[in-house]
Amino acid sequence: MERITAARGLALRCKGWRQEALLRMLENVLENGENQQELIVYAALGKAARNWKSYHAIVDTLKQLEDGETLVIQSGKPIGIFKTHPYAPVIVMANCNLVGKWATSDNFYDLQEKGLIIWGGLTAAAWQYIGSQGVIQGTYEIFMSIARMHFAGSLAGRFVLTAGLGGMGGAQPLAGVMAGAAILCVETDENRIDKRMAAGYLQVKTASLDEALDLIREAQAEKRAISVGLHGNAAEVYPALLERGIIPDVVTDQTSAHDLLYGYIPEGLTLDEVKRQRKEDPAGLQAAARRSIAREVTAMLGFKDRGAIVFDNGNNIRTQAKLEGVTRAFEIDIFTEAFLRPLFARAIGPFRWVALSGDANDIAVIDKYILEQFSDNDIATNWIGLANKYVPVEGLPARIGWFGHGERTRLALAVNEMVRDGRLSGPVAFSRDHLDAASMTHPNIMTERMRDGSDAVSDWPLLNAMLNCSSMADLVTIHSGGGGYSGYMTSAGVTLVADGSEAAGLRLKTTLDNDTGLGVLRYADAGYEASLDEVQEKGIRRIDTDRYPNLMEAR
Ligand code: NAD
């Protein structure tokens, strides 16, 4: 079969841009994905569609879908077309949702084997993945937050150690270089190292730990940024560094530790041996992966004890280690709570846009607009300046930018205008990571140690999805899964198409205002002062139940 790439240009294959845009987003996640043959986009097993039959059925359906019809997709398989109305979503989806007691990794693997479910990641099955760029600003903001908190504002001359150069982890070397650091990334699969180098995300590769350390030390001495990919296993390299007394300044890991069967590679095994063992002895392979994770996390704790800044980068590595007996695993901070919560409390999060025509100049025009019109927003302007300089194009040209309530709407409406008056060469799709203020409950990543203890309450992403449907979004999706697929997470995704029409303007305004509005209210409800300030400043209509009397008490 021919390799799938996203269509470019302005020729429509569907009955309108809303359907065409979503079709291109599907093609784009496959174009950018890690293993197209298996429909795998990122995060070990995160798939774009159930199987190839489903993929072709989705493509065919989108080409025929009329305005006023809604396509329903269940775990990557199109189920049916429903008559709705022209302001209803084009697509609603639910991916990888299992009821609580049944939400175990074993049940998930069994159901996936039977072809009944897929792990959709956050942005794979929702067709919102834009390559490693999708998390790069988040990773950069984490590094800069660490720089401000611990290293007088700069990572120049600092040594960052991490692992995993997959779909998302591949953002780390470039984010590290953008933050000025000398970053060492350990990766077991040489093909992934090569892929990141070809994409312009990684500078140098080696299979020798000594050579890697020399490169890092030289760069540190000259306060020069460098990214080095080391072909090796983190479960071996981390303890080896600790034994030699080499303590990095910052340590994390972004291997697919959430998945013990298809993700994390145990030490001492080749990739071929892992493939074989996956079939012959899946339980043994998972046990070996967990033992290796325990070794790696024990070394991470050793680095922490010796002064390094150590954090979990959202792959559930601490949970796996704790299950293997590393009782101190949760002394390692989670990145959201440690570095990003003040942003999420104001619903500032990873917003993103894709130039559907394929013209990279459209992204440059939007960059310029942001630099001019958001000049008072330091996060956005600093980032756009850097992204413009460093971030290469992967698939359809795209950009990520952390924006908050009101700002996303302002930007999207301006872009819709630019599509209409021809300043942009074609329509633009907007979406965001599911890791956003209203849209994710993950008590070991997004909502760990919430101020009011509401870490595991998954009403919020469900409400978010329903509100976005009511707000006329073009695609709305609900996902579950996460760490080991054992019901660690519920999340919601949304995509909107700016095709220059008035109807698009209405959809963009309503959905984006409500999406971030609910995000601010989620954190306000948990008692974060920044959110309560945002409610006041932005005029969000919060209902303060504390102001009402308790009639039982009054009696
Ligand atoms: P991926 O499956 O595409 O890549 C994982 C990489 O880790 C692979 O290249 C694999 O070869 C490598 N690897 C596995 N075991 C290793 C070991 N022992 N030593 C060294 N390398 C090893 O996954 P991804 O898309 O890059 O995501 C990685 C993890 O990050 C996942 O758990 C995902 O859920 C999580 N994630 C976090 C965020 C966030 O916001 N922080 C965002 C997206 C994904």
Automatic annotation (TrEMBL):
Catalytic activity: 4-imidazolone-5-propanoate = trans-urocanate + H2O
Ranges for domain Urocanase Rossmann-like: 131-339
Stretches that traverse the bilayer: none
The record's free-text note on cofactor binding: Binds 1 NAD(+) per subunit.
Chain sites annotated for binding NAD(+): 167-169, 187, 192, 233-234, 254-258, 264-265, 483
Location(s), subcellular: Cytoplasm
Top EC category: lyase
EC number in record: 4.2.1.49
Domain of life according to the entry: Bacteria
Record has Cytoplasm as a keyword: yes
Pfam family, one: Urocanase
Cofactors required: NAD(+)
Pathway: Amino-acid degradation; L-histidine degradation into L-glutamate; N-formimidoyl-L-glutamate from L-histidine: step 2/3
Keyword annotations of the record: Cytoplasm, Histidine metabolism, Lyase, NAD
GO molecular function: urocanate hydratase activity
Major location (coarse): cytoplasm
Annotated ranges, domain Urocanase N-terminal: 5-127
Function: Catalyzes the conversion of urocanate to 4-imidazolone-5-propionate.
Protein name: Urocanate hydratase
